[in-house]
Specification:
160 residues; alpha/beta; 42% helix; 5 strands; 8 helices; Glutaredoxin; globular
């Protein structure tokens, strides 16, 4: 199996893995993210309200984990996850339109969609095509809260 196929298989698996009952226990969601900020969370377990003022959710929607745009986006994220971690980004995926996750209901994607939500809980960016981590990072770095974090000499990671 080629490295690209292995990476694709890994990313597809990540998009389908779930953290048990996180939606029921917001402290567990925060603790799980703080313990492993490179973990990809399933939308079924995430309550956006629990992340307000803590993290910047980056939600990747697709109608299937086999969607080429989804695969491309997840490969991009996996390749430069450290840049997202620096900016307090939590990556959330939803590849099951029949699952009716609260995120899917709230954000109403049509097919592939990349959505960046600020720490204030407001949608900052919606894109119908994959974006590079560099483009995502630049968008975050323009946000007033991120500029304040940088001015205070913090890299964005909250203290655990």
């Amino acid at each position: 199996m080629t490295d690209m196929l292995k990476a694709t298989a890994l990313l597809a698996t990540l998009s389908l893995t779930a953290l048990p009952a996180l939606a029921q226990d917001t402290d567990s969601l925060e603790a799980a993210w703080l313990a492993d900020p490179t973990r990809v969370f399933n939308a079924q377990e995430v309550d956006l309200d629990a992340l307000q003022w803590i993290a910047r959710p980056l939600v990747v929607f697709a109608n299937s984990p086999r969607d080429p745009a989804f695969i491309q986006q997840m490969e991009e994220i996996a390749g430069e996850f450290d840049q997202l971690v620096e900016r307090d980004v939590i990556v959330i995926v939803d590849t099951d339109p029949a699952g009716d996750s609260a995120l899917r209901e709230r954000l109403r994607p049509r097919g592939f969609m990349l959505t960046l939500i600020g720490k204030d809980g407001q949608v900052k960016l919606r894109k119908p095509l994959p974006w590079s981590v560099r483009e995502i990072s630049r968008s975050i770095d323009k946000m007033p809260m991120r500029q304040r974090e940088q001015a205070e000499g913090r890299d964005g990671r909250i203290d655990g």
